[in-house]
Amino acid sequence: MSYVVLARKWRPKTFDDLIGQDYITQTLKNAISTGRIAHAFILSGPRGVGKTSTARIVAKAVNCINGPTPDPCSTCSFCTEISEGKSLDVMEIDAASHTGVNDVREIIENIKYLPASGKNKIYIIDEAHMLSQSAFNALLKTLEEPPPNVLFILATTEVHKIPVTILSRCQRYDFKKVSVDKIKEQLAFITAKEEIEIDDETLYVIAQEADGSLRDSLSLMDQLIATFGSNIKHEDALNILGILDRHLIKTALEGIVNKDPRFCINVLNQAIEKGISPKRFAEDLLRTLRYALLIKTCGKDLITELSEEDKTSIDNLLKDVSTETLESLFNLMLEGTENIQRSFYPQMALELILIKLSTLENIVPLEDIIKKLDNLSKRAGTTEKSSGRFDEPTHSYKSAPTPKQAPKKLETETTTKIETKEAEAPQVKTSPPGSKSMEDFIQFVKSTKPVIGRRLEQVNNLTIDSSVIQIVCEADSAPLDYLKRKETQITLNTLIKEFFSEDMRLQIEEVKGKAPGNNKTKVEQKAEKKEKIKNDPVLKEALDIFGGRVISIKPNNKE
User: Is residue 393 predicted with pLDDT exceeding 60?
Assistant: First the structure.
């Protein structure tokens, strides 16, 4: 057969031709230039990234008529024979079919003879991890101290299967997947040389489908050329290769963000009409949600599989979606994808997952809820203070009608909940100036600033003596953290002056250490803390107002 596939025709001939392995090529070139060439190499990494090609280039570099040289000519008889696989001094051994100890013994027997025509003998053992344990053991001594004119190069996709005793005798080079952008650039270069008309969008899709393997991308290109000749249209390429158009995935994601299950099902039907399997659709949607979560939490630079245009479009689409919501979407899709893989009815399973994703309520972080509640409380207090009036004898506070319903609802719910907790009020010692008591002051604060009033009810001790109001709280407690805030203390001082009409000084103290007789384990204490947080009236009020639910409880920085 005269036709040569693109992967063989465009196989790298020099170190500069290797794509995406810059540090490896630079290291090998420096070693050859300085004459520090190791007697054994292990080239490991995923398929189709240039391991065997690198082994042949090293063989040419040490046997070239101008060598050893980091830039073999590729035209002399030695380089040509190596490129064509005809050299008697370069033996390529497929370890998958030569796994036994007898095959290694044959290598050991032949290794003592001088090269036939070149300067060095090179043994390239491909898929080296397929050798048996006995074969590895037989190779150990020779691999450690080969003759001076012998070089071993082991290539493998599963380096973890190579014995440690072998690894310790070789220089190891780990190849990585080729980035999508570099694969696309190489495809554009090759198709231009081959005079193939193809859109950049199609090249980009092929580069993504190759999953970091340049050889796989060239195989896909060969398939398209065999089908459509030198003029390849984007839609035809997607159909023949069974690749899902990323535009459909982004459209489905848009339906999920907009909470439109009908739209998502329509997108799925379009994909199925184009011959895309539900399993493939689910995998690509899961992968896109992963990209979105990584972009949201780690930034765009971490993702090499997407172009900058795709990263920006995903970021813009999900910029208003919280990280917690994305986590839930990803977890649902991950679980759903696993179910779809096992299901006898994958389309139905996928439809159910899309409905779940598109009807999932947005998850708001607890910190945001508390901030919103605080803002509502401040606005409610300001509105009531500006529109209410005081009756002179009792200082009872009455609010005038107001069109703002949310603050009024907040005031009503707060009053109701506090009345049910009066039995749990803090210990209060009263020795107030005049006839005004601390109980009256707490009620006054509750009617003006409900959140602050509720925190005062939660403290351990509350006393007033002469011109000092003393508040005692347990260390690291929610009331202490809240009452120690600068804005809270400013508000409290204002309310104290307004209620008592005298200059009073506010003093906040904290009680450190646990109460006597507390022998509970850390697990029990942690469970009690979580239960206390769940029963916090501020949190309950936030959940009532916003219609939310507690997803998880995370410790703060102090804990």
Answer: no
Residues 267 and 249: their CA atoms lie apart, in Å, by: 8
Q: What does the radius of gyration of the chain's CA atoms come to, in whole angstroms? A: 37
Report in angstroms the alpha-carbon separations of 16 from 19, 24, 37, 38, 77.
8, 11, 19, 21, 21
Both structure tokens of 326 = 């994305």
Q: What angle do CA 490, 495, 498 make, to 5 degrees?
A: 125
Q: Which residue has the tokens 């071993």?
A: 152
* Per-residue model confidence (pLDDT) at position 385: 52
d(CA 138, CA 101): 7
* pLDDT digits 0-9 by tens, 115-126: 888 888 999 999
Tokens of 414: 């707060």
CB 511 within 8 A of CB 474: yes
* 376 vs 143, higher pLDDT: 143
pTM of the model: 0.60
- The H or E element containing residue 411 is helix 405-419
The answer to whether 248 and 275 have CB atoms below 8 angstroms apart is no
d(CA 479, CA 458): 6
Residues 238-263 pLDDT 10s: 888 877 777 888 899 999 988 899 99
Domains identified in the chain and CATH numbers:
6-174 (3.40.50.300), 180-241 (1.10.8.60), 246-359 (1.20.272.10), 367-546 (no CATH)
DSSP result, 250-311: HHHHHHHHTT-HHHHHHHHHHHHHTT--HHHHHHHHHHHHHHHHHHHHH-GGG--SS-HHHH
